[in-house]
Write a structure and sequence with these properties.
Elements (H helix, E strand, L loop, with lengths): L7 E5 L2 H12 L14 E4 L7 H12 L12 H10 L2 H4 L4 E5 H5 L8 H8 L3 E4 L7 H16 L3 E4 L6 H15 L14 E6 L2 E6 L8 E8 L2 H13 L4 E4 L3 H13 L8 E4 L5 H15 L5 H4 L3 E4 L13 E5 L3 H8 L27 E5 L17 H6 L3 H14 L1 E4 L3 H9 L12 H21 L32 E10 L2 E4 L7 H4 L1 E5 H8 L7 H10 L7 E4 L8 E2 L3 E2 L10
Parallel strand pairs: 1-3, 1-4, 2-3, 4-5, 8-13, 9-11, 9-12, 10-11, 12-13, 15-18
Antiparallel strand pairs: 6-7, 8-14, 15-16, 15-17, 19-20
Helix pairs in contact: 2-3, 7-8, 7-17, 15-16
Length: 587
């Protein structure tokens, strides 16, 4: 409205958060512009066609007509909105865009139409949420994007609840370099929350007030083994409270779920499983059920005695509220995120929501239970692996995990927001490594080496901006070619798999007879799990799979798993993917 930017793009970590933000922006984005302007709003991610709000908005724009148009003829603004919406790479040209951060990161990778994406971001406000959650590979991509965006006159707002000082310093330096500012120096302020503002005139770091609703003390208690975790859940259920146990691997989540199902103190209908290995059609159904049962507006009747066994899928994105939270040990920033789902909203003693924010929560004070080995006993090399082998495979820097539980156990909990900065720097601060027990050094060195390797991969894949628009700007990444797919995320070497079924010799989507069946039939698997499963596909189906991928362009970069007689037991809607590995245990 004041002419300070041409638009906004909101980059979020997941499609779920993007869908939720799109709904919120739909009711407010017009206030960013003057009354006589008609800005476009577009959702941008790989499964946006599954968002009813987005598809309805496009359909509505196509129906717009005014006195200057014949019936059925599109107005200019409606045509523009439809044109922007028909392809993700054009979506960044919209006045206001909401999507995953991946759509923006592709602007600094050597991929077709890369320049169109950067053009769409030019002179806009780039708003990125959950910056702390980026792995080393994505951090390198983010740094390059921030530099390019600043160089072409854009502004950026980076949000994080758990950002270490070292990373904040790097982000400030990168934006300053791209914008051509003189080097900006940060004070190591301990205020929390803190707003850091970088401009040509300098750096300002300002403390901001905390909402009363998030000011609280959370007790922390360590659980020595899974038996203690189950007993904790049993006590809570018998008291009529709802519980979530966040496990760090799908395998551990399945184990805990099976153990609870086999117990005699809880009805099976009150035990729920939610992880990342569901086809999209089933994941959407489970997610809606979880939100209904544990969401902001859930009632005491819906919540009482309910248990959710979940993985990191509930760590962010979903507005959930549990009376009791149990979690496997994880890095401190993720522990804080998980604690944010513990008594998140104000409720009565039995769990009914209280509408007014000025009331106090009437439940038993929040306590976060952490399944973890003892940080004070004599530390051996298998300190973590003996109790949580899967966790060490996911979060390899065991030293940071030791620092996390050490800090939490010494304080016996934490106060928010007062302790947030202390906890983050206790784990990620430059001096913290000196406190890690020597027995964990090898695991820490291996984790650091992997981190550097991922950073190097990010540097290799990013465009060399100083070379301009030339083929050589791709360096050694092999980009610009149609048969090269450079990812925006490395993650844990996951692959996207489409489940298909046999319909009289023809392969059809698992989500049959629904709109967007191919997209709704997708799920994500670790590369190790997929490679084992692929070996078990019957030979007679291999040629049919290749023909299917040739006939359906959307499947070009995806893997295909036929659920036929020999493999149909690999997946079911309740438990998700459960095909065992032939070698090892997997995650």
């Amino acid at each position: 409205d004041k002419g300070l930017a041409q638009g906004v793009y909101v980059g979020l970590p997941t499609m779920a958060t993007a869908n939720a933000m799109y709904q919120r922006m739909a009711s407010s984005y017009r206030s960013l512009y003057s009354a006589e302007e008609f800005p476009s709003l577009v959702l941008s991610h790989g499964a946006r066609q599954l968002s009813k709000e987005f598809t309805d908005s496009v359909s509505l724009s196509c129906q717009v007509s005014d006195s200057n148009y014949e019936k059925g003829e599109l107005s200019a603004s409606a045509y523009c909105n439809q044109w922007l919406a028909d392809n993700r790479k054009k979506a960044l040209l919209a006045d206001v865009g909401v999507g995953t951060i991946d759509q923006a990161l592709m602007g600094i990778l050597p991929a077709k139409h890369q320049a169109l994406r950067l053009l769409g971001l030019a002179s806009k406000v780039l708003l990125i949420d959950e910056v702390h959650a980026f792995d080393p590979y994505m951090r390198k991509l983010l740094i390059t994007l921030l530099k390019a965006h600043a160089a072409q006159g854009g502004s950026a707002i980076l949000l994080s609840a758990t950002l270490p000082f070292s990373f904040r310093k790097e982000l400030v330096a990168t934006f300053s370099e791209g914008a051509g500012f003189f080097e900006k120096m940060l004070e190591k302020k301990t205020d929390y929350p803190l707003v850091t503002h970088v401009s040509e005139s300098g750096v300002n770091e300002n403390a901001v007030a905390t909402r009363k609703s998030v000011q609280r003390h959370v007790d922390v208690r360590r659980l020595a083994d899974e038996t203690n975790a189950c007993h904790t859940i049993q006590r809570a259920v018998e008291e009529g409270r709802c519980v979530c146990w966040i496990r760090n691997t799908v395998g551990d989540a399945r184990t805990a779920y099976d153990e609870l199902i086999a117990s005699d103190w809880i009805e099976n209908e009150k035990i729920h499983l939610f992880h990342s290995r569901y086809a999209m059609i089933d994941r959407q159904a489970i997610e809606n059920d979880v939100l209904q049962r544990f969401g902001k507006h859930s009632t005491a009747h819906e919540r009482s005695g309910q248990v959710l066994i979940a993985t990191q899928v509930v760590e962010q994105s979903l507005d959930l509220d549990f009376d009791v939270m149990v979690t496997d040990l994880a890095p401190i920033d993720l522990i804080i995120q998980r604690a944010g789902r513990l008594q998140r909203h104000i409720r009565t003693a039995v769990g009914d929501p209280i509408a007014t924010d000025d009331e106090k929560d009437q439940r038993v004070p929040p306590c976060l239970y952490i399944l973890s080995p003892d940080p004070d006993k004599q530390i051996e090399t298998d300190w973590l692996r003996a109790l949580l082998p899967g966790t060490q495979a996911v979060y390899g820097h065991v030293g940071q995990l030791w620092l996390t539980i050490k800090a939490l156990q010494e304080k016996e909990g934490f106060d928010m927001p007062e302790d947030a900065r202390f906890l983050i720097e206790s784990v990620y601060g430059e001096a913290s490594e000196n406190d890690i027990p020597q027995a964990l050094d090898i695991a820490c060195i291996e984790a650091d080496a992997e981190k550097r390797a991922h950073q190097g991969m990010g540097e290799l894949n990013c465009l060399m901006l100083e070379k301009g628009y030339t083929r050589s700007s791709a360096g050694q990444s092999g980009g610009w070619d149609d048969d090269v797919n450079i990812p925006t995320r490395l993650g844990d070497d996951t692959v996207s798999v489409v489940l298909v079924k046999d319909d009289n010799g023809v392969l059809v989507p698992f989500a049959k007879d629904v709109v967007h069946g191919w997209a709704l039939s997708q799920l994500s698997l670790s590369k190790k799990v997929w490679e084992s499963a692929r070996e078990q596909i019957p030979q007679q189906w291999l040629s049919a799979i290749e023909q299917l991928k040739a006939d359906v362009p959307a499947l070009k970069w995806l893997e295909v798993m036929p659920l036929v007689a020999e493999t149909e037991h690999f997946y079911n809607a309740k438990d998700g993917w459960e095909a065992p590995l032939r070698r090892g245990t997997g995650l």
